[in-house]
C-alpha cells in the first residue's frame, strides 16, 4: 500500500472538479427548429450528437485524470516493502572500518574521521527507542557497543572516543562472527558499513558464508564510502634486508618495492636511515599504477646489539605506507661447522669461500672438525653444518642429523670419494622417499651448464642477480639424482635435467644436497666465481632460517629469543610514542623463545628486563599498504540477492534508507503518466474534431438551393 510523504498536495486533487463543473455549466439542450427541406438529415445529426458526447466524456475523463496524477505526484507517494523492513523501532548495526588504510587523508580529514562524522549524522536522525550497536574491525577489541542499546548519548560518546587502529580489517568475517554469536534481537537490522572497501578486506568466500545469516535475519546492508582517495600516493609494498644480520660494521642491502596509485604522476625519493642518520637515498620516476623495485646499501656504524631504522618516502595522502621499519641483529659472527669426511682438503675451498682473503665474511665464522668429532660432539650451537665427503651415513649419523634439523638447523651435504651419500639414508627424510642417487663418471672432462629450475625461490633469485646464469664448469663426476616431479630441486644440469641442488624441509630445519664435491676431486667448480657466490649465498640463506626475526606486523605475536636462564621474564615495553607498559612472559625452558604480543602500533619498540634490552620493528600489514578498492558495482554485485544500497554521501544514504523503509518513489512514474495523458488528450480531441466528408446527396442539394432534379 502506498504512503505519501507530502499529504497536503493531495488537496490539489480537488481541482479536478473544475473541468467537471465547466462541462456541466456549458451543457445545453438544443432547441428543435422545423425545417421540412432537410428532415431526411435527422438520422445523421443524431449519430453526430452521440459521437460528440463520447468525445467530450473521454476528454473530460483524461483531464480529470491528469489533475489527479499531478496532485498525487506532488504528494510524493512511496510503495513500502513490508517483507524487507518491519515496522516499529529500528535496529542499527554500525560497522566502522578502523583499519590502517582508513587513516589516508581526503582533504583536511582522514577517511576515518569522515566516516565517524557520517555515523554521527546517522545516529542524530534516529528516534527514541531505536537500538544501535557499534563494531570497529581493525581495532584489537572490535566490539565497541554490543548488543544494541537505545541509550543514544552513550553511543555517541563511544563513537566520538573511537580511534582507528593500525591493523587489517576483515569485514565479512567480523560481521559473521558477531551475528552468529548474538543472542537475538537483530531481526530486520540495518547494517551500515563505513569503509574504504579495500579488496583485501572484502573476501568473497567469507561474504558468501555471511549471506545466509543476513537472509535469515531479513537484514538490509548499506555500503557507505566517505570518499575515494583522489590524490597521488606512493607506498612501500614490501622490503627485504640482506644479510639478515649485521657482522660488526659491515654493509647491508635493502631492497624495496614501491607502488603508485592511479592518481600519482612524478618522482619520489626513498631514503634508508638508521639512528645515526641517513645512509643512502635514491630518486625514482614513476607512472600511475606502476611498481618498481630498487636497492639501497649502507654501512651501520656503532656497537648497538641491533641496527634499527627505516625506509621512508616523501609525504603524501597516506603516511603509513610511506615507511617500513627494520631491526637487524648485530653479531660478532654466525657460527658454521665444516665437517671433513677424510681430511682438511675436503673443506678447504668451503673455508676460503666463507673467509675470502682470510677474513670473516659478512655472515659466517666457520669451525672445522673431523667426522668422529662431529658424531661425538654437540652441534646445536651452529647455525649451519656443511658436511663434505662423509663416510656412509649410518643410523647413528642420520639420527643426529634429524635431531639437529628438528630444532631448526640447516645441513648441506657435499659428496666425495668416500661415496658415503647413498639413497637408503636420504630416503629417510621428508620428500625424498622416492629419491634415487647414483654416481656417474663422464668419459672425459666435460663442461656442464647449471641453470635455474625454480625461479621463485629467494636463493635462486639472489644467485641470478649477483651472477647471471647459466653457470658452467668442467665436471669429471657427479651425483645423478632422480625424484618425481623434480620436487625440491632448485638448480639442475642443462644437459640431462639432473638436479644440481635438492632441498628437503625437515620440521623446522632444512637439508640440502649438492651434486658435486666441495673440492677438486669431481670437478673444477671450486675454482670458479660461481662456487664463491653459491657458497656465500647458500650460507646466508640457511643461516637466515635459523636467526629469530626482530620484525613483525601489527597485532601479530613475535617469537623472540631472550638471553638468560630465566623462564619467567618481566618486560617493560616502550612504544614508539613513549608509552610504557609491563608484560610478564613465560617459556618452557631457557633455550625456548618468548612469545611477544600486544604490539598495536607500527614503529620501533624497546623491550627491557633488568640489564637486557632489545629493539624490535613493527610494521602495518602488507594488505594495508595497497589502496586498491572495490567499485560500487562490484560491491552491490557481491551482495546479490540481498537488499543493499551504496552511498557516497549522507544525503544519498538518507534517500536509500527512506526507499528501503518507506518504499520506492512513485512520483516519477505519475509525472510520466500525466505527461502522456496530456499528449493523448490533445491528439484525441484533434482527431475527433476533424471535418467529415459530406454525403453526395447533401452536396447536390446545397448546390441546387434545396431542389431535387
What does this structure look like?
- The protein is an alpha/beta fold and 709 residues long.
- It folds into five domains: 2-80 and 666-703, no CATH class; 91-228 and 629-662, 3-Layer(aba) Sandwich (Rossmann fold); 234-331, Immunoglobulin-like (Sandwich); 334-546, Rossmann fold; 551-619, Immunoglobulins (Immunoglobulin-like), CATH 2.60.40.
- The protein has 16 helices and 35 strands.
- A nine-stranded mixed sheet has the order 19-18-20-21-26-25-24-22-23, sandwiched between helices. Strands 7-6-3-8-9-34 form a six-stranded mixed sheet, sandwiched between helices.
- Mean pLDDT is 85; it is low at 81-86.
What can be said about this structure in brief?
The protein contains 16 helices and 35 strands. It has 709 residues and is of the alpha/beta class.
